[in-house]
Amino acid sequence: MREIAISKLIEKSFNRTIMMLFDPFSARRWLALLLIGILSGAFSVGNFGVKNILGKNNTKQERIEAGAQTQNVAATENRQVQRKPNFREVVNGAVQKFFNGKNAVVFILALWLMLMFMIVMVWLEARFKFVWFHAIVNNLTMIVEPFKKYRLEGDSLFQFIIVFTISSFAFFLSLVGFGAYSLVSSGVFYGERSAGIIVQLIGIFGPLIGVIVVSSLLLYLFYLVVDDFVVSIMAIARCRFLQGYQKFVDIYKYNRGEIWLYFLIKFGLGIVAGICQGILGLIGVVISLIAAAVIFGLPYLLAVVMLKIKAIFIFWVFIFIAPFVAGMAVLMTSITLPFAIFFRCFSLYYLSSLNCGYRPIPIEELD
C-alpha cells in the first residue's frame, strides 16, 4: 500500500526536477540530460502515413460504363455485367504497377536501410532507458558508465521490444488486411453504391475501428507499465525483462487500486502538462521568429536592400543557418525536458511509496 500522499509525491517530483535543472544551472548538464532523454525515448513520438496506390482513371471509366448500363433499361436482358475482380487480382495489379523496373530495387534497398536504422535506434533507446533511470535516481549525467553497467538489462529489454513490435505490427496488419479485403470484396471500387453495401461496410468497419482503438489503448497502457515500472524494477533487481515483469505482476496483485490510480493521476497531469507545453511552445515559436528577424532580417536589409550586394547576405546565411537551426531545435526540444524529468521522478517516487521492496529514490527523500 502507498505510504505517502499523492500531493506529497507531486511536490517531491516538482522539487527534484527544479533541483536537477537549476541547482545550480549548467548548460552542459542541461544538454547532457536532453541527449539522454531523447535517446531514451522519454519525449519521442512516431508517425505513419499511408498512400493510395490504386489508379483513378480506370475507376472513373468503370463508373461511366456502369452509369451507361444503368440508363439502358430497355436493353436490360442484353446487357452484360462486367466481372468484378476479386481481392487477389486487385492486390496483384497494384503490386505490378508499383514494382516495375528499378522501383523494386530502390524500394527494397530503402526499406532495408530504414529497417536497420530503426533497429539501431530501438537498441539505443532500450539501453538509454537505463541511463535515463541512472541519471534521475543519482542526479548524474554520466553516459558511458551506466550504458555499460546495464548492458544485460538493456539488451533484454531490446529483445522484448523487437518481439513485441513485430507481434503488434502483425496484429494491426491483419486488421488492416481484413478491412481492405472487406472493402474490395464489397464492390465499392467498381461502381456499386447501394445502401446495402454502405450498411455492410458500417457493420464491418465499426467494430474494426473499435478493436483498433481499444487495442491501441491497451498497448499504450502496457508501454506505460514497462517504461514507468518494469524498467525501474529491472535496474534495481538487475534482472532481465521477463523476471522484471513478473516482479511487477507480484506488486500489482497487492496494489491494483494504487497502480490504476497512478495511471489516472498521470493522465490528469498529462493534460495539464500538455497545456503548459503548448503555451511554452508558442513562446518558443515567437522567440524563434524574433531571433530569425534579428539574425537574418537585419543583414538582409543592410546587405541586399541598402548595399545591393546579395553575395554578402548569401555568405552570412551560409555561415549562420546551421547554428541557428540547431539552436532552435535545442530550444524547442528543451521545452519538453522539465516535463520528462518530472514524470520520471513521479513514477520513481510512486514506486518507492508502495512499500513493495523497491525504493529507487532513498526513503528519507520522501519524509
Characterization of the model:
Residues 45-82 have low confidence and may be disordered. This protein is 78% helix and 0% strand. Helix 2 (27-39) crosses helix 5 and helix 8 (195-237) packs across helix 9 (241-254). It starts with 5 loop residues before the first helix and ends in a 14-residue tail after the last helix. It has 12 helices and no strands. The protein is globular, with a radius of gyration of 28 Å. The chain has 367 residues and is an all-alpha fold. The chain has helices spanning 6-22, 27-39, 57-71, 87-98, 102-138, 144-149, 151-185, 195-237, 241-254, 256-306, 310-334, 337-353.
Secondary structure: helix percent:
over 70%
How far apart, in Å, are the first and last alpha carbons? 16 Å
Number of domain units = 2
Tally the beta strands: 0
Structural category:
mainly alpha
Order of helices and strands: HHHHHHHHHHHH
How large is the radius of gyration? Answer: 28 Å
State the helix count: 12
Query: What kind of sheet is the major sheet?
Result: none
Q: Which shape, going by the Cα principal axes?
A: globular
Average pLDDT level = 82
Strand content: under 5%
The unreliable regions are 45-82
Task: Map the helices and strands.
Elements: H1 6-22, H2 27-39, H3 57-71, H4 87-98, H5 102-138, H6 144-149, H7 151-185, H8 195-237, H9 241-254, H10 256-306, H11 310-334, H12 337-353
Helix pairs in contact: 1-12, 2-5, 5-7, 7-8, 8-9, 10-11, 10-12
What tags apply to this protein structure?
mainly alpha, 367 residues, single chain, 2 domains, 78% helix
